[in-house]
Design brief:
The chain is of the alpha/beta class. It folds into 2 domains: 4-96, 3-Layer(aba) Sandwich (Rossmann fold), CATH 3.40.50.720; 112-198, ProC C-terminal domain-like (ProC C-terminal domain-like fold, Orthogonal Bundle). The protein has helices at residues 11-21, 39-46, 77-88, 101-110, 112-129, 134-154, 159-166, 172-182, 185-207; strands spanning 4-7, 29-32, 51-55, 65-71, 91-95. Strands 1-2-3-4-5 form a 5-stranded mixed sheet, sandwiched between helices. Strand 1, helix 1 and strand 2 (29-32) form a beta-alpha-beta unit. Helix 4 (101-110) crosses helix 9 and helix 5 crosses helix 6.
C-alpha cells in the first residue's frame, strides 16, 4: 500500500505545516481536508503534484458524511482511488470536475449540517414553548427529522410533493408554511448558502497566497 499523508489542520496553519513537511514527504500522496486552500498553493508549498483536496462534513464522525473531492489532471488514477477509499470510509464521496466545485459543495453539504441544526434548534424551541421538556423536545424533533429523511429517500415523489402531501388546504400545516413564506425563510436559506459559497471563495483566495 502506498503512503498517504492527510492534512487535517486549520487553514491558517496549513502553509507553515506544508513548508515543514515538504522535505519529509518522500513522494507520499497528500490529501487535504483544510477548507479553502487551493491545490495549486498546496502543490507549491509541498513541492509535489500528488495532492487531492477534499471537503468533508461533520456527520463523517458517525459514518454519514458527504465529501467533495478534487484532483488536478496530473494526479494519477491510483492516487484518486486511494483518496476515495479513505474518505468513503466515513460516508458518501462526490468528485468535482473543477476545483471551484469544492466551494459549491461547501455551501450545500460542507456547511449544510449547521443549517439543519439551526432548524432543529428552532423546532426544539417550539416544542419547549408548548410544554415539552428538553429531553422530549430533542427526541421528538430528531425522530421527526429521521422519519422525514427516510420517507424522502424511499419515496419516488419529488420533495415539494411530499411537503404538499402534509399541507392540507386550510389546515394547521398550511398555516405554518404560510408564516415561513411570509418571512421568506426559504429565500433566506438559499441566500445564506450563497453567502457561504462567496466566503469560501474569498477565504481560499486569501489563504492560498504566498
Amino acid at each position: 500500500p502506498q503512503d498517504v499523508v492527510v492534512l487535517a489542520i486549520k487553514p491558517q496553519q496549513l502553509k507553515a505545516l506544508c513548508l515543514e513537511l515538504a522535505p519529509r514527504l518522500g513522494g507520499a500522496l497528500v490529501v487535504s481536508i483544510a477548507a479553502g486552500i487551493r491545490s495549486e498553493a498546496l502543490a507549491r508549498w509541498l513541492d509535489s503534484d500528488r495532492v487531492v483536496r477534499s471537503m468533508p462534513n461533520t456527520p463523517s464522525m458517525v459514518g454519514k458524511g458527504v465529501t467533495g473531492l478534487f484532483a488536478a489532471p496530473a494526479v494519477s488514477l491510483a492516487d484518486r482511488e486511494a483518496a476515495q477509499t479513505i474518505l468513503a470510509s466515513v460516508g458518501a464521496v462526490v468528485w468535482m470536475d473543477q476545483e471551484r466545485g469544492l466551494d459549491d459543495i461547501t455551501c450545500v453539504s460542507g456547511s449544510g449540517p449547521a443549517y439543519v441544526f439551526y432548524f432543529i434548534e428552532a423546532m426544539m424551541q417550539a416544542a419547549r414553548q408548548v410544554g415539552f421538556d428538553d429531553d422530549a423536545a430533542r427526541s421528538l424533533v430528531l425522530d421527526t427529522f429521521d422519519g422525514a429523511v427516510a420517507l424522502a429517500r424511499q419515496s419516488p415523489l419529488p420533495i415539494d410533493q411530499l411537503r404538499s402531501n402534509v399541507t392540507s388546504k386550510g389546515g394547521a400545516t398550511e398555516r405554518a408554511i404560510a408564516r415561513f413564506d411570509q418571512g421568506d425563510v426559504k429565500a433566506a436559506i438559499v441566500a445564506g448558502a450563497m453567502d457561504c459559497r462567496a466566503r469560501s471563495i474569498e477565504m481560499g483566495q486569501q489563504l492560498s497566497q504566498d
